Amino acid sequence: MGTNGSTMLEPLRQGLPPLDPSAVSSAASCSLPARYEAVREARQFTRRTLDQWDIGDRFDDVCLVVSELVTNALRHALPANTPRAVEQGPPVRLHLMRWTERLVCAVRDPSHDSPVAQDSDDFSAESGRGLFLVDSFSDGWGWHPLAGTLSGKVVWALFRLQTDCLRDDT
Description:
This protein is α+β, with helices and mostly antiparallel strands. It has four helices and five strands, in the order αβααββαββ. The protein has helices at 4-15, 38-52, 59-77, 129-137, and strands at residues 26-32, 92-98, 102-109, 141-145, 153-160. A five-stranded antiparallel β-sheet has the order 1-2-3-5-4. β2 (92-98) and β3 form a beta hairpin. α2 runs antiparallel to α3 (59-77).
């Protein structure tokens, strides 16, 4: 059995724009508890990670998208009246991956339902609107079902990075 980390990224890579997985220069991930405070934790994790990678200039856009993706994931990870076994572990996980000129944030959740930006007449509908924000603030997004032993899906968003403000350490 491989580690969950490597298994997790395979379906994501298949669903991404053509980015060479071996060219990832930096990657970080964190498990998020099935509580709505997890959105704040995800923002703090994103802030620390982008600062470490010297791409804090994209923080506002990335953070808004991370907040929406995590909120949507929690909505699926916290179904009403569904007991969740403790040993299942955190149902939501945030991944940040950086290529030279690209940043991808990906959120895993246990739901198999495809994310749909809803054009609904029901103005009280909570779900769906966040994906319009994701679409507006990112340079592309998509999703992919998980394969193998992991159930659920990954929803990802892509950000282009300005290379002129990145240091060339080589």
